[in-house]
């Protein structure tokens, strides 16, 4: 299912204006409603948990346009965030077996975590709903 939102362009732009923050929340909510709530278990708590982990002062992108990175590291599954969550860098000490090759037409949501410290660089995270649907292995 291709994700379409009239706010995608505004949400992907750099900047911290009120319009951009509202667009980022809207894009994240719409994407997650369609790919998590609508496809998986109708687990609204999973959508809310993820939305609380997004720094809305940073861009939020929904693809496959632009294409996702060619390689992403699968983050450990947990009861809070099951499969489908990826990072651009492997966590320290993580095995090399966690890297996945990602097709350029893969649907995804990219966001940034809230900073751990005031001067910390933004850390990107990805959600690929195709892993939940069993389309990406």
Description:
Helix content is 27%, strand content 16%. It has one domain (8-132). It has 137 residues and is of the alpha+beta class. A 6-stranded antiparallel sheet has the order 1-5-6-3-2-4. The mean pLDDT is 84. It has helices at residues 8-12, 18-37, 44-51, 129-132; strands at 61-63, 71-74, 85-87, 99-101, 108-112, 124-127.
Q: Average pLDDT value?
A: 84
Side-by-side strand order of the widest sheet? 1-5-6-3-2-4
Give the domain tally: 1
Whole-angstrom Rg: 14 Å
Q: Give the strand tally.
A: 6
Q: Could you tell me the strand content as a percent range?
A: 15-25%
- Poorly predicted residue ranges: none
Query: In this structure, how is the largest beta sheet organized?
Result: 6 strands, antiparallel
Relative helix content: 25-40%
Oligomer: single chain
Number of helices: 4
Distance between the termini: 18 Å
SSE string, helices as H and strands as E: HHHEEEEEEH
Computed structural class: alpha+beta
Shape: globular
Provide a short characterization of the protein structure.
This protein has 137 residues and is α+β, with helices and mostly antiparallel strands.
What descriptors fit this protein?
137 residues; alpha+beta; 4 helices; 6 strands; 27% helix; globular
Which helices and strands, and how do they pair?
Blueprint: H1 8-12, H2 18-37, H3 44-51, E1 61-63, E2 71-74, E3 85-87, E4 99-101, E5 108-112, E6 124-127, H4 129-132
Antiparallel strand pairs: 1-5, 2-3, 2-4, 3-6, 5-6
Helix pairs in contact: 2-3
């Amino acid at each position: 299912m291709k994700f379409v939102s009239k706010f995608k362009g505004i949400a992907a732009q750099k900047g911290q204006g009120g319009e951009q923050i509202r667009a980022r929340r809207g894009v994240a909510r719409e994407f997650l409603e369609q790919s998590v709530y609508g496809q998986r278990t109708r687990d609204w708590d999973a959508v809310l948990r993820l939305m609380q982990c997004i720094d809305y002062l940073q861009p939020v992108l929904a693809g496959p346009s632009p294409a996702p990175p060619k390689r992403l590291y699968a983050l450990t599954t947990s009861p809070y965030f099951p499969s489908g969550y990826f990072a651009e860098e492997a966590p320290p000490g993580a095995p090399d077996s966690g890297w996945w090759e990602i097709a350029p037409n893969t649907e995804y949501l990219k966001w940034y975590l809230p900073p751990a410290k005031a001067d910390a660089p933004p850390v990107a995270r990805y959600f690929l709903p195709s892993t939940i649907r069993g389309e990406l292995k």
